[in-house]
């Protein structure tokens, strides 16, 4: 594919769709939404408002990091604090699909509706990619950002139209487009991170305390494994507890799973053979997180497993 031509065609398309109106896009810090932000900003300039939704489910230091990256690219990003809405919507939910649905609804029915109203935007840009659509349509997993392909008319339901400029690309293509658009390497090569964010990595109920645990484990995993060059690595908090010993006392502790995979486009994945020494270091650091007394390494490829746990 000629990515220059792809970009030109998309920019034209976005311009003609939006005309002289306003559009909104939400950037999460992942490659897909970052590339959409650059494309849409190139097409629309000041007609576009870019927001970062602080949903309580993000990794350590995310809003600050992201606002700084885009400020360097001349793109202002407004942080919208929606933590209470997301935590409220997730309260008491343990079923994976219900959790995903609650996150989707909070984004699309609450946050985007009110932000689009404020900005009088008729369009919302989205980083949906081909793999998201295929897996959702095949019924494997409801990706948080798939609406129109499931027959939801967003204009009727929410009052704005969803536009998906990357829906014909896979992750490798999105990265190429990002490079051509001048997205910094640190973002182009950022490991994928799911829309439902850390909620995709908590089995069972999502609470502030459980988020803090998985957030701490995620920071450790990302720091320790960033040099591996693997496609994706992550930490998951299980819903089980196990007996352990700490300071000579019995402790019923939480369990963190570490996952490190190689893949081209996330449709299939194999597990990286990490050196024992690295696994031991991860275990030492992760079991130092308060309340965690076990660390497991997941050896399951995709399929039969998926990458995330919900
Ligand atoms: P799974 O778990 O479906 O993940 O094997 C495949 C790839 O997609 C990411 N992922 C998501 N990305 N919204 C996204 O934007 C989602 O709802 C979602 N679920 C999973 C996951 O991190 C992996 O790279």
Lay out the secondary structure.
Elements: H1 3-18, E1 22-26, H2 31-44, E2 48-54, H3 62-72, E3 77-81, H4 83-90, H5 96-119, E4 121-125, H6 130-137, H7 154-158, E5 161-163, H8 171-180, H9 185-188, H10 208-225, E6 232-246, E7 249-262, E8 270-271, H11 276-286, E9 292-297
Parallel strand pairs: 1-2, 1-4, 2-3, 4-5, 7-9
Antiparallel strand pairs: 6-7, 7-8
Helix pairs in contact: 1-2, 1-8, 2-8, 4-5, 10-11
This protein binds xanthosine-5'-monophosphate.
What descriptors fit this protein?
binds xanthosine-5'-monophosphate; 310 residues; 9 strands; alpha/beta; five-stranded parallel beta sheet
What fraction of residues sit in β-strands?
15-25%
Radius of gyration: 20 Å
Task: Describe the sheet with the most strands.
Answer: 5 strands, parallel
Query: Strand arrangement, largest sheet?
Result: 3-2-1-4-5
Structural class: alpha/beta
Choose one word for the global shape: globular
Q: Calculate the mean pLDDT score and round it.
A: 94
Kindly report how far apart the N and C termini lie. 33 Å
Fold and architecture overview:
- With 310 residues, this protein is an alpha/beta fold.
- The protein is 42% helix and 20% strand.
- It contains eleven helices and nine strands.
- It has helices at residues 3-18, 31-44, 62-72, 83-90, 96-119, 130-137, 154-158, 171-180, 185-188, 208-225, 276-286, and strands at 22-26, 48-54, 77-81, 121-125, 161-163, 232-246, 249-262, 270-271, 292-297.
- Strands 3-2-1-4-5 form a five-stranded parallel beta sheet, sandwiched between helices. Strands 6, 7, 8 and 9 form a four-stranded mixed beta sheet that branches.
- Helix 1 (3-18) packs across helix 2 (31-44), helix 2 (31-44) packs across helix 8 (171-180) and helix 10 (208-225) packs antiparallel against helix 11 (276-286).
- The longest helix is centred in the middle third of the chain and has 24 residues, at 96-119.
- The two termini are 33 Å apart.
- The model has no long low-confidence stretch (mean pLDDT 94).
- Bound molecules: xanthosine-5'-monophosphate (XMP).
């Amino acid at each position: 594919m000629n990515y220059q031509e792809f970009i030109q065609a998309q920019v034209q398309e976005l311009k003609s769709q939006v005309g002289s109106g306003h559009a909104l896009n939400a950037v999460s810090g992942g490659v897909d939404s970052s590339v959409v932000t650059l494309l849409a900003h190139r097409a629309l300039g000041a007609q576009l408002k870019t927001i970062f939704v602080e949903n309580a489910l993000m990794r350590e230091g995310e809003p600050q990091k992201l606002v700084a990256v885009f400020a360097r690219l001349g793109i202002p990003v407004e942080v919208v604090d929606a933590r209470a809405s997301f935590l409220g919507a997730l309260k008491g939910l343990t079923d994976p699909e219900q959790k995903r649905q609650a996150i989707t609804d909070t984004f699309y029915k609450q946050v985007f509706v009110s932000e689009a109203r404020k900005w009088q935007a008729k369009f919302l840009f989205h980083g949906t990619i081909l793999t998201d659509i295929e897996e959702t349509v095949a019924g494997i997993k409801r990706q948080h950002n798939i609406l129109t392909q499931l027959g939801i008319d967003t204009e009727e339901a929410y009052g704005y139209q969803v536009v998906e400029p990357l829906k014909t690309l896979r992750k490798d293509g999105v990265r190429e487009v990002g490079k051509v658009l001048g997205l910094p390497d640190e973002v182009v090569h950022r490991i994928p991170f799911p829309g439902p964010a850390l909620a995709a990595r908590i089995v069972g109920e999502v609470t502030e305390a459980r988020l803090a645990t998985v957030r701490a484990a995620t920071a450790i995993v990302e720091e320790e494994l960033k040099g591996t060059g693997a496609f994706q690595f992550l930490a998951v908090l299980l819903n089980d507890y196990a007996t352990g010993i700490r300071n000579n006392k019995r402790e019923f502790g939480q369990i963190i799973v570490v996952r490190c995979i190689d893949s081209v486009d996330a449709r299939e994945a194999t597990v990286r053979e990490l050196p024992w020494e690295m696994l031991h270091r991860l275990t030492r650091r992760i079991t130092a997180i308060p309340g965690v007394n076990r660390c497991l390494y997941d050896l399951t490829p995709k399929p039969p497993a998926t990458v995330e746990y919900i």
